[in-house]
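Project outcomes to date are best conveyed with an example. Our students and postdoctoral researchers have been running inverse folding experiments weekly, and each run begins with a structure described purely in C-alpha cells. The record below, which covers 137 residues, was selected by the lab manager from last quarter's runs and is presented without edits.
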C-alpha cells in the first residue's frame, strides 16, 4: 500500500464470493494467530486482494470488526469478567477518536491516506519485531 496499488481484476466491480471467503478466512487466521488488531489486517486485504477503494474498505472493515467484537463480547460475558469502568471509558474515548478521525479522513486525499496507513503498519511491525526478537534469542 506504500506504492500505488496494482490493478486488481476486481477493481470497479464486486469481487466474487470465491475470492472473498478465502481472503476473510486468511485475515481471520492472521488476526487470531498474531493477535493483531483486525483493521490492520482487514483493510489491506480488502484493498490489495479484493480491489476495494480505501474508503469502502475502511467502512467494510469496521462492520466486520463490530460483528466479530460483538461475538467475542458475548463469549466473554458468558465466561469471564469485564472491567466496566475501563471498558466504558475506553469505548467513549474510542468513539470520540473515531468521529475525529472520520472528519480528518474526509479532508485527506485517499491516496495519501492509504500511504499514511501503510507507513503506520510498517512502524507497528518494526516496533513489534524489535520488542519480540530479543525474547526469542
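After processing, the design step wrote out the following sequence:
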Amino acid at each position: 500500500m506504500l506504492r500505488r496499488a496494482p490493478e486488481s481484476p476486481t477493481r470497479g466491480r464486486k469481487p466474487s464470493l470465491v475470492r472473498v471467503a478465502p481472503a476473510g478466512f486468511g485475515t481471520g487466521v492472521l488476526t487470531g494467530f498474531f493477535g493483531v488488531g483486525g483493521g490492520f489486517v482487514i483493510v489491506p486485504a480488502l484493498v490489495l486482494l479484493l480491489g476495494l477503494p480505501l474508503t469502502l474498505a475502511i467502512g467494510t472493515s469496521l462492520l466486520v470488526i463490530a460483528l466479530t467484537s460483538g461475538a467475542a463480547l458475548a463469549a466473554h460475558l458468558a465466561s469471564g469478567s469485564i472491567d466496566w469502568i475501563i471498558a466504558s471509558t475506553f469505548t467513549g474515548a474510542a468513539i470520540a477518536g473515531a468521529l475525529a478521525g472520520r472528519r480528518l479522513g474526509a479532508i485527506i486525499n485517499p491516496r495519501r491516506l492509504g500511504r499514511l496507513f501503510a507507513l503506520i503498519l510498517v512502524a507497528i511491525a518494526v516496533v513489534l519485531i524489535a520488542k519480540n526478537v530479543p525474547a526469542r534469542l
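DSSP finds five helices and no strands in the chain. The chain has a mean pLDDT of 81. The training component of this project remains on track.
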